[in-house]
Amino acid sequence: MNNALASTLLLLTIVHLGGADWPEYRGPSHDGRSPERIARSWPSTGPRQLWKIPSPGGFSSFVIADGRCFTLVLRDIEGASREMLSALDADTGRELWAATLGVAKYDGGGDAGADGNKGGDGPRSTPAVDDGRVYTLSSRLLLQCFDAKSGQTLWTHDLVKEHGAPSLRWGNAQSPVLDGDRLFVAGGGPGESILAFNKRDGSIVWKGFDEKMTHATAVPTTILGRRQVVFFVQSGLLSVDPETGKELWRHAHPYKTSTAASPVIDGDIVYCSAGYTVGGSAARITRSGEIWTATRLYFKEGNKPLANHWSTPVLKDGHLYGMFQFKEFGNGPMKCVDIRTGDVKWEQPGFGPGNVILVADQVLALSDDGQLVLIEPTPTGYKENARADVLGGKCWTTPAVSGGRVFARSTTEAVCLDVRPVPASK
Hints:
Blueprint: H1 3-18, E1 33-34, E2 48-54, E3 63-65, E4 68-77, E5 80-89, E6 95-103, E7 128-130, E8 133-137, E9 142-147, E10 153-158, H2 159-163, E11 177-179, E12 182-186, E13 194-198, E14 204-208, E15 219-223, E16 226-233, E17 236-240, E18 247-252, E19 264-266, E20 269-274, E21 279-288, E22 291-301, E23 314-316, E24 319-323, E25 334-338, E26 344-348, E27 355-359, E28 362-366, E29 371-375, E30 384-389, E31 400-402, E32 405-409, E33 413-418
Parallel strand pairs: 1-27
Antiparallel strand pairs: 2-33, 3-4, 4-5, 5-6, 7-8, 8-9, 9-10, 11-12, 12-13, 13-14, 15-16, 16-17, 17-18, 19-20, 20-21, 21-22, 23-24, 24-25, 25-26, 27-28, 28-29, 29-30, 31-32, 32-33
């Protein structure tokens, strides 16, 4: 092989393995999916650790873009516990800068570990990063935009003071959502409970509705050829036109105490679920011109079989894979569920309320006690491809994948792991 050809093949390999950024909560397409291909197994010692650092407090996940990763942490500064946006070098884990989001909302739960039922203090929201800017929504509903390189504050909105946002138990947990040139959040008072901002200057594009917010993050999606943003509010699912804020359709779903998992969309079917004895349901969306209708397919009430406490499942070939449980800390099951019927195809205990993503054709799960697990997404039965103990502390966060690396964190530490596929032998 000549040097020119070898260099070309190396460049193609680097481009292929470079992978996509992971710019928002649950990834580039808002559904927990990554197009990257990663290793289908790893040694008994686990994937190669690239770095591990302290990362105290809260349940904010990582977002990754342009060689940097961002998350929200809890730090004691001048005698007060404060939420901080931390910007790290994605290659080394070295902190580049940090910015305060204000005094953390106090929960009083402490850090009870994987077998405890207290949430602990600190941020629950995940940042979003786009075009050199980072967007955050604090537990006290302070919406901010920062320069990704310097950490300079570019604009700020206090949703409580400016829009009459109500207080939620445990504080805000929803993440800011970007779609096109707009940023979407739930969190205002009557007449402005759903808000769309211009992501560049922070100006209001539209506002409306009298809904009550939950802890769930909205999902931008396309259904029946129409772009829309689906919010999971206390009345159930609400779909709006992202350009105008016009209501498209609704699907009623009960609310009790907290709703925290995002909706999941499969074509014209939308699934949603909550804990606290609420359960899961799905609706089929139909359209006749500008008339939209959501028709319930099923509703399975209770903590079994379909409660998703805060763990949003991923979708593969018409089946949901994820942690379906409520307060089964340390041992709650992962399940495979037919999204069209709600039928459970299989379940496997031992995960607790962790989280999953779908990386190409594999489910990557992070259990609540720090086990990273590769699972084959098939409805025929549970098939585990690899497992490793990668984190201490309590892991209620969603892992992220970018450039052949897994970024994950707990209430005590963060880790970056090399999961690039092994090159085929020549």
